[in-house]
TrEMBL record:
Coiled coil: none annotated. Pfam families: DUF4397 (PF14344). Keywords: Membrane, Signal, Transmembrane, Transmembrane helix. Residues 41-157 form the DUF4397 domain. The keyword Signal applies. The keyword Signal applies. It comes from the Bacteria. Residues 1-31 form the signal peptide. This is DUF4397 domain-containing protein. InterPro entries: DUF4397. The chain crosses the membrane at residues 256-274.
Amino acid sequence: MTSRTSRTSRTLAASAGACALALGVAAPALAAPDADSDDTAMVSVFHGVPGLTVDVYANGDELLGDFEPGTVTAPRSLDAGTYDIQLFEAGQGPDGTPAVEKKIEVPAGANATIAAHLSADGKPRLTAFVNDVSKVDAGKARLTVRHVAAAPAVDVRAGGQPLFKGLENPEEDTTVVDAGTVPADVVLAGTDTVAIGPADLNLKEGTSNVVYAWGSAADKNLAPATQTLGGMESVPNGVDAGGGGAAVSSNSSDQWVAWAAAAGTAALAGVLVARRAAGRRG
């Protein structure tokens, strides 16, 4: 099934991210700027901090209010530049203490997805991910899974077979697969203990499909969120199909709603708590 797999842990200085988050904008991918790009960037934002609705400030001005967890924003072009970004719990800024604060440079020509999420130990953070929006062969689709949850390492399986192994927060892994419906689940790394799923993924030809595993195992609120980017079709005779990684759809529940299976989440939470307890005893 897999034609190419590459482990990436691409954490881009959270630059385009926080600004995008501040503006509540979204875009699918961050490719390296090219010589022909103008003074803008395309950015999409995913909010994966459970239980925390935020207001976002840039250079002291409120740019986004009541941004809710589980949301993937739509693509938008941003002016390149440097922004002082602050994320406050809704209603507590700008005089309160920000949950996250960072000075962010948004590079011209970038195309990125930014995630506000929990670290492996449960602390809010910002991570900028590079989306691969290169063309795929006819009949193929790209699948990327991003581990942005407060949870231990996981394996991702397709049709019962490991697709990605040992994925840790905030890593991602990506591969090209046959287009169509793929049954998938997430298990604790090196085991058959299901943490999320199973569920069917509908991967359409010429799309790049990003799945975010987010939430907290200890709090039993692990959940999936999905984003689909179009325009990766390879067209005969070298004709570009267009699209350039435009967001076809983004949602947090439709495709992988079954991945929030309570039993799997509880099992993962139990393992995480046991590991933390063992660490304290050591």
